[in-house]
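Internal tracking record. Fields below are filled automatically when a chain is submitted to the structure queue. Please do not edit lines marked as system-generated. If the sequence contains nonstandard residues, flag them in the REMARKS field before resubmitting.
Queue: standard
Priority: normal
Entity type: single polypeptide chain
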Amino acid sequence: MEIVSTQQRKKIHPHKFTLWVAIGSIVMMFAGLTSAYIVKSNQAAWQTIVIPKIFWYSTTVILISSLTVQMALRAFKDREMNRYRSLIAITTVLGVLFILLQYLGFRQLWMSGVTLRGSGAGQFPQDSCGFWLGCTCCIKPSRGANLLGGFSCVPLTPDPGALAV
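SYSTEM-GENERATED OUTPUT FOLLOWS
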């Protein structure tokens, strides 16, 4: 019987394994994009772009929303339901604001002539300084969908007994 319990302790939970596979995949994707950026930026026809300031605001908003969701989790664990509900509502508003700021930022890029065509930095998912802008058609919209999907699964009136260990 002890052999079975020792073997079970050595096993990794399937959800944790899936999480590590996803993290590994994301790291590999960004490593590939970074190496492609380095190669393409050395081409003769490379044109740099300037990041609209609105992207810095959206970065600040998403960082603040990460803080508020962690505070909400702590309030939930402490069974402070009113505080939890307000923090989740603030996080939701910040998530929607993030999506709006991303839309406005990419609209500003598009209006200034930065598109996914040509050989300049606008075709590439980074700016000339190496900060990630994200691919207009894939990465940024998926972040918005991720936020909306995540918040649709968060209950606003949770069962405090659900965290009982």
